[in-house]
Design goal:
The complex is a heterodimer of chains A (115) and B (117).
Chain A (H helix, E strand, L loop, with lengths): L2 E3 L4 E5 L4 E3 L2 E3 L4 E8 L6 E6 L5 E3 L5 E5 L4 E6 L8 E9 L8 E2 L3 E6 L1
Parallel strand pairs in A: 2-12
Antiparallel strand pairs in A: 1-4, 3-9, 5-6, 5-10, 7-8, 8-9, 10-11, 10-12
Chain B lengths: L4 E3 L2 E4 L5 E6 L6 E7 L5 E8 L2 E4 L8 E4 L6 E5 L8 E8 L11 E2 L3 E5 L1
Parallel strand pairs in B: 2-11
Antiparallel strand pairs in B: 1-3, 3-8, 4-5, 4-9, 5-6, 7-8, 9-10, 9-11
Classes of the chains: A mainly beta (115), B mainly beta (117).
């Protein structure tokens, strides 16, 4: 069965530190990849997405992610985090062969940024 | 343009009661997805609907759960005879369309937090 794995369940950083959240998926074919963020008390919002083309994807709020096909990975990065980045981050995948678009989510990573 | 609306935001039910969760998609979106998030877990796909059609219900529990998206009105996720294990956050997402291998992003609602006592 297809699955998505996020390695870090809880990350604590100080402001200005660099961030990298790991995401690996298990599916051999083409995939569409997403990172969603859920700020405290708010709904899920799309940070960035990869469908095809340049494997380095830039999203909102200074986030970026790199698709490495050989490693089945789509890690999220930000060079310098802010206190306002405190949130839960979800990686999600849709197999390219899917004609329903249903998302397969990782279990999420809680990021806490200390001021 | 209003986003995806879900109500109620919080719902408390006693064991054996019925829970009805509503989702109004974004304007112009005719595709609705329901996901469930159990405590300490990620979101799990439940069902995908278009107007008046259930397209994929592979994530729905076999019993007590049903979903609909009528021609008029919101999509409804219905849970009959709730049990404590149904306590979770239920998220609805809408999409303009998904056709063939063309995927469009999903926009999520704020969720309904169901507590079964």
């Amino acid at each position: 069965a297809q699955s998505v794995s996020q390695h870090n369940h809880h990350v604590i950083l100080s402001e200005a530190a660099s961030l990298e959240l790991g995401c690996n998926y298990s599916y051999g074919g083409t995939v569409n990849l997403f990172w969603y963020v859920q700020y405290p008390g708010q709904h899920l919002q799309l940070l960035l997405k990869y469908f095809s083309g340049d494997p380095l994807v830039k999203g909102i709020k200074g986030f970026e992610a790199e698709f490495i096909k050989s490693k089945f990975s789509f890690n999220l990065r930000k060079p310098s985090v802010q206190w306002s980045d405190t949130a839960e981050y979800f990686c999600a995948v849709t197999p390219g062969s899917s004609n329903t678009g249903k998302l397969i989510f990782g279990q999420g990573t809680t990021l806490q940024v200390k001021p | 343009n209003a986003g995806v609306m879900q109500n109620p935001r919080h719902l408390v039910r006693r064991r054996g009661q019925e829970a009805r969760l509503r989702c109004s998609p974004m304007k112009g979106h005719s595709h609705v997805y329901w996901y469930r998030q159990l405590p300490e877990e990620g979101l799990k796909f439940m069902v995908y609907l278009q107007k008046e059609n259930i397209i994929d219900e592979s994530g729905m529990p076999k019993e007590r759960f049903s979903a609909e998206f009528p021609k008029e009105g919101p999509s409804i996720l219905r849970i009959q005879q709730v049990v404590r294990g149904d306590s979770a956050a239920y998220f609805c997402a809408s999409s303009p369309r998904t056709q063939g291998q063309v995927v469009y992003e999903q926009y999520f609602g704020p969720g309904t937090r169901l507590t079964v006592t």
